[in-house]
Amino acid sequence: MAKTKVKKTGTSVPSPPHATSVQYLELLQNLSKISEEEAIIFRKEKNISVDTGDSNGQSAEIFKPVIRFSDSSAVLPKGLLKICDGFEDIPSAIQSQTWPYALTFSKSIVGIAETGSGKTIAFGIPAIAKVIHLSGTKKNVPNGKYSPDVLILAPTRELAIQIGETIEKATGFLEKPIKSTVIYGGVDRSSQLAHLLSTKPQILIATPGRLLDYLSEDELSLFTVSYFVLDEADRMLDMGFAPDVKRIVNAMDSTLSRQTLMFSATWPSTIKRLADSLIKGPSVRISVTSRSELLTSTDNSQFSPSSLKGGSTIKQIVTVVDDHQEKEKILFSLLSKYSSGKIILFVLYKKEADRIEQVLLKKGYKVSTIHGDKAQSARASALATFKDGKSLILLATDVASRGLDIPFVETVINYTFPLTIEDYVHRIGRTGRAGRSGVAHTIFSPLDKNHSGELIGVLRNSGQDVPQELLAFGTATKKREHKDYGSHYKEIDPSIKPKHFKFDD
Question: Where does the Helicase ATP-binding domain start and stop, copy by copy (predicted)?
Fold first, then answer.
């Protein structure tokens, strides 16, 4: 069960100016110590794009990026920045440009940055600061139910737990208790709810399923949520998660001034339209990518998944096999080739993961496995074993491809290609994090040929070699439209006759 921990240190919490005061706004506007000219150069060097235009085409002030964590001390409680001590006072690109807007406590944000870029700190520190600014504010919750001030949604249990650990670490440097709790499925429902209602945390980190479970039974409220975060937002708002997110947003007080922050490594324009419908009030889009104009385009016809790219520190390799049966032989060759470091091995289906796990165990490999059917305790144990180096192979379905920050992963192997090119980008982003180099090696078979055009686009956009065998599958794609969701379907080559497969999981 998720636990709330409150730590106290000898650090005192000062009283920064109230967020609505003129003094606070003046401090916020002057957080950055660089000139406008230097800010322009900084954004260009870091590939930062800022779009403050509203639906009427009017633009608002563009805040200068904060190039030192310490510059934010004037508006943050003393001690809160201690979580950043290991970063040599230098924020990542997404952090430097996000904080000035997030700390307004009014501007909503869409943040687009590659994996490992520090998005959790980008939204986590302002979340804690907002709770402190709200302290002492009277809450009017119907029927006196528990309701958090901050809600952070994550698509998987593992990512939710990871976010919770970061928030807990940051609040541990404060004297005044700030409580946070993580709720997710896969553990006892009643005991988790009892813990939640007894601690009443100001910050709630949740997966959609468990949160909706409690909401549907009227066991908690979201009436006071004024800071709402969607992490890995593209996954949340795809066809599977959009209804859940909308139900959660509809449970919030529509009259409350709510700040919404969405973060992801990819942002297809079809998903962007759905996100725009959920954002309340003024907003800004911050992209840290050399192709930001494609990822944030309001003209959906200009977007193609092939405009996506992998991280600059990731070497992408594709091995094309003639026969699907050849994949296992290639896999053992790759495991031998990359045996000196940690490997995440991705497959598509849960039963496929179980089968590959047994094959590897029989061959003497030490492997940890996570997928959606594994109990939470088993998943946590598998991740811990992999992180500690007791096993060098983590076998996973796409449940592990989003947001998890597992340090020192040298190699990602795609044994089975994912369902979408966006999932491919997220998978390979498990390596090459925090400036380290990594390798992503994909086994591509004729069964994957519908993805060839998209994969070729990602490789080219990333400056990677494209094997002739992959080019032979073709690069042409044709967009399909849906009356409700637009061009959300995978692009396909119309010359390829579709094949139909039936899976039992």
Answer: 100-285
Of 71, 50, 187, 199, the closest CA to residue 113 belongs to 50
- Residue-range domain boundaries for the chain: 22-303, 307-471
Residue 402 binned pLDDT confidence (cut-offs 50, 70, 90) = low
pLDDT for 76 = 86
Cα–Cα distance between 322 and 346 in angstroms, integer?
A: 20
Q: Residue 258: left (phi > 0), alpha (psi -120 to 50), or beta?
A: beta
Count of Cβ atoms closer than 10 Å to residue 461 Cβ: 16
Mean pLDDT over each residue of the chain, to the nearest integer = 81
pLDDT tens column, 423-433: 898 899 899 88
Helices (H), 279-435: 292-295, 327-337, 350-362, 376-387, 421-428
- To the question of domain 307-471 being in CATH 3.30.428.10, the answer is no
Per-residue pLDDT for 213 more than 90?
yes
State the DSSP string of 217-233.
TT---BTT--EEEEETH
How far is Cα 182 from Cα 203, in angstroms, rounded to an integer?
Answer: 9
User: Which residues lie below 8 Å from residue 365, measured CB to CB, with a gap of 6+?
Assistant: 335, 393
What SS3 class is residue 444?
strand
Whether 238 shows a pLDDT value over 90: the answer reads no
| pLDDT at residue 194 in the model | 96
Whole-number Cα distances in Å, 59 to 42, 50, 52:
21, 11, 5
Local confidence band at 440 (pLDDT 50, 70, 90 cut-offs): very high
CA 228/CA 207 separation, integer angstroms: 13
d(CA 505, CA 353): 12
Written as one letter, the residue type at 99 is W
3-state class of 132 per DSSP?
helix
User: DSSP readout, 53-74?
Assistant: --TTS-----PPP--SGGGGGG
> Taking residues 90-104, what's their average pLDDT?
92
Give SS3 for 242: helix
- Is residue 275 within 8 A of residue 266, CB to CB? The reply is no
Q: What integer pLDDT is reported at residue 270 of this predicted model? A: 62
Please state which of the four CATH numbers 1.10.10.10, 3.40.50.300, 3.90.960.10, 3.20.20.140 is assigned to the domain occupying 22-303.
3.40.50.300
Residue 490: pLDDT over 50: no
Sheet containing strand 48-51, edge to edge, reads 48-51, 283-288, 108-113, 259-264, 227-231, 150-153, 203-206, 180-183
Residue 98 has pLDDT above 70, yes or no: yes
Q: Say how far apart CA 238 and CA 266 lie, in whole Å.
A: 12
307-471 has the same fold as 22-303: yes
- In this structure, which amino acid lies at residue 393? I
**Residue bearing the bigger pLDDT, 270 or 317:** 317
